[in-house]
């Protein structure tokens, strides 16, 4: 039986990088997806160390904070360079850039609220995100990953492209075709047979379809 349980909403969001890492490494886990409508009722009964999702339960203990959870999963599947502190720093540095982009886009895609504010955020994202992508492109190696070996930041980039930039391209309109090295990383991760099989299972599922987002 799986000793790992990942709890999150039934969307990619902040949990998908951990799902992908566990899938990549063939780690059996229970992918517990909580319907958003049921969350307020279930919340009091959930073990939420920081009051929010995602959480990862490992051998009966529950842990919070999405990036720390992802790094744990990456370590477990050999995609975090624990033996090389400087490489680990660079991996985390780029992961922080990707996370900043993710969070800025989540604020547009997933947060309800004032349409004027959303439009303002969208305009800023259309200006700022291409600059950050260019920065990532400049740092990526030619070999289909950021560094000389595949690390979790490659999987995180895949998540950003697949589940945010491409899925919501009609809303975000952040062009992606000019970043050849980032596209190569996308295809490296997508080409992993475990990841490919997982995408085949999940991509058509209801929870992975883009929600309607109205913007000015
Ligand atoms: N810094 C936290 C943020 C977690 C967070 O904001 N989670 C949201 C979903 S993406 C949540 O659980 N919202 C419901 C709540 O706070 O009760 C992390 O990265 O894990």
From TrEMBL:
InterPro entries attached to this UniProt entry: Glutathione-S-Trfase_C-like, Glutathione-S-Trfase_C_sf, Glutathione_S-Trfase_N, GST_C, GST_superfamily, Thioredoxin-like_sf
Pfam families found in the cross-reference section: GST_C_3
Domain GST N-terminal as annotated: residue spans: 2-81
GO molecular function: glutathione transferase activity
Example GO BP: glutathione metabolic process
UniProt keyword annotations, A-Z: Transferase
Keyword Nucleotide-binding carried by entry: no
Span of domain GST C-terminal: 84-211
CDD domains associated with the record: GST_N_Sigma_like (cd03039)
Highest taxon of the lineage: Eukaryota
Name of the molecule in the record: Glutathione S-transferase
Organism: Achlya hypogyna
């Amino acid at each position: 039986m799986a000793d790992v349980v990942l709890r999150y909403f039934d969307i990619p969001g902040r949990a998908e990088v951990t799902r992908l890492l566990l899938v990549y490494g063939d780690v059996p886990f229970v992918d517990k997806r909580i319907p958003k409508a049921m969350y307020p009722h279930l919340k009091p009964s959930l073990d939420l160390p920081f009051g929010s999702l995602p959480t990862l339960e490992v051998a009966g203990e529950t842990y919070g904070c999405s990036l720390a959870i992802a790094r744990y999963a990456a370590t477990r599947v050999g995609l975090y360079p624990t033996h090389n502190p400087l490489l680990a720093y660079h991996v985390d540095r780029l992961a922080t850039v990707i996370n900043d982009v993710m969070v800025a886009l989540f604020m547009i895609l997933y947060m309800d609220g004032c349409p004027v504010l959303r439009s303002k955020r969208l305009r800023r994202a259309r200006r700022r995100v291409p600059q950050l992508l260019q920065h990532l492109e400049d740092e990526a190696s030619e070999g289909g990953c950021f560094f000389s070996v595949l690390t979790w930041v490659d999987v995180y980039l895949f998540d950003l492209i697949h589940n945010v930039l491409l899925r919501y391209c009609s809303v975000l309109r952040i062009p992606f075709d000019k970043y050849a090295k980032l596209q190569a990383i996308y295809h490296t991760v997508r080409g992993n047979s475990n990841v490919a099989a997982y995408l085949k299972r999940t991509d058509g599922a209801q929870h992975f379809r883009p929600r309607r987002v109205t913007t000015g």
